Amino acid sequence: MSSASQPPQTAGPADPKELFEIYKLAVEMADRISARRGTANSFFFTLHAALIGIVGLVEPGGSEGEDFGRVLTAVAGIVLAFAWWALLRSYRDLNTAKFKVINEMERSLPAAPFTDEWEHLKGTRPKPLRKRYAEFGAIERIVPLVFALLYVTAIVQILVD
């Protein structure tokens, strides 16, 4: 088995205070990633709201140049929606890895707040959909897909008119 397929093994700090300082840093880094994700969401949402506005500003059945511009804007919107979706997935993967490390560190600490919180949220028994915890990352990745659908609908409408 290649060494690339196995996670690196590290010997943690022997000093509990040192471990706790590293733990606090890891939690802070995870929080910063979440804040950056929120900033990216705000940027992309604002961008898409503007693009949808541009696509909808020109009256349907306008000149060929206007229609071509609307279609190009919608195509750009689709590309940006999928870029946003991919970025959100990347943030999710990064945070998943960070919290795996944090949860592993909690095994050596007197309390495990993130591990315990996750256990409370996820639970072990099946629940009906509306009572089940919906991860924020899963919900937020729907928004770019909705924008992509709006752009596709706009393109179809432009081409039909």
Topology diagram in text:
Layout: H1 16-57, H2 64-106, H3 113-122, H4 136-140, H5 142-160
Shape: elongated
Q: Note the beta-strand portion.
A: under 5%
Distance between the termini: 59 Å
Low-confidence stretches: none
Largest sheet: none
Count the beta strands. Answer: 0
Supply the number of helical segments: 5
Decide which structural class fits the backbone: mainly alpha
Helical content (DSSP H or I, runs of 4+): over 70%
- Counting structural domains, the number is 1
Mean pLDDT: 84
H and E order: HHHHH
Instruction: Please give the radius of gyration in angstroms.
Output: 22 Å
Summarize the model shown:
Helices cover 74% and strands 0% of the residues. With 161 residues, the chain is mostly helical. The protein has one domain (15-160).
How would you describe this protein?
The protein is an all-alpha fold. The chain has one domain. 74% of the residues lie in helices and 0% in strands. The chain is built from five helices and no strands. The protein has helices at residues 16-57, 64-106, 113-122, 136-140, 142-160. Helix 1 (16-57) packs parallel to helix 5 and helix 2 runs antiparallel to helix 5. The chain is elongated and about 70 Å long. It starts with 15 loop residues before the first helix and ends with a helix. The mean pLDDT is 84.
